[in-house]
TrEMBL record:
This is GOT1B protein. GO terms for cellular component: cytosol; endoplasmic reticulum; Golgi membrane. May be involved in fusion of ER-derived transport vesicles with the Golgi complex. The keyword Cell wall biogenesis/degradation does not apply. It comes from Myiagra hebetior. It comes from the Eukaryota. One of its GO terms (biological process) is endoplasmic reticulum to Golgi vesicle-mediated transport. Pfam families: Got1 (PF04178). It is a multi-pass membrane protein. It is found in: Golgi apparatus membrane.
Length: 130
C-alpha cells in the first residue's frame, strides 16, 4: 500500500510539475517518489533486476539519465530523455494496459473511435516500437 501511494504521488508530482511549466522542484520530487514507490511495490532486488537487464540498458540509461538531469536543474531536457526511456522500459506492458482500458466503459468507447482505434492498435502491439 505504501508503494502504491508513493508511486501515485510521484506520478501526480510529475504531472503537476509539467503543467506548471516544468517546475524542477516538483519534477525532482516526483521522480524520487516514483522510483521509491516502484521499489516498494516490487521490491528492491526485482527493481534492480528490472532496470539492469542486459537488453534494457539503453532504456535504463535514458530514464535514469533523465532523472539525474532533472535533479541537476535542466527539467525540459531531462523529462524528454526520461519519457523516451520510460516508453522503452515499459513498452512490454502497453498491450496489457490497452486491453484493460478497452474494457472500461467510457474509455473503451473512446478508444474504439475510428481515428483513435488504429493509433491504439499500434501502441497495443506487443512488438518493439523503436
Amino acid at each position: 500500500e505504501i508503494g502504491m501511494g508513493l508511486t501515485g504521488f510521484g506520478v501526480f508530482f510529475l504531472f503537476f510539475g509539467m503543467i506548471l511549466f516544468f517546475d524542477k522542484a516538483l519534477l525532482a520530487i516526483g521522480n524520487v517518489l516514483f522510483v521509491a514507490g516502484l521499489s516498494f511495490v516490487i521490491g528492491l532486488e526485482r527493481t534492480f533486476r528490472f532496470f539492469f537487464q542486459k537488453h534494457k540498458m539503453k532504456a535504463t540509461g535514458f530514464f535514469l539519465g533523465g532523472v539525474l538531469i532533472v535533479l541537476f536543474g535542466w527539467p525540459l531536457i531531462g523529462m524528454i530523455l526520461e519519457i523516451y526511456g520510460f516508453f522503452l522500459l515499459f513498452r512490454g506492458f502497453f498491450p496489457v494496459v490497452v486491453g484493460f482500458i478497452r474494457r472500461v466503459p467510457v474509455l473503451g468507447y473512446l478508444l474504439n473511435l475510428p481515428g483513435i482505434s488504429s493509433l491504439v492498435d499500434k501502441v497495443g502491439e506487443s512488438n518493439n516500437m523503436v
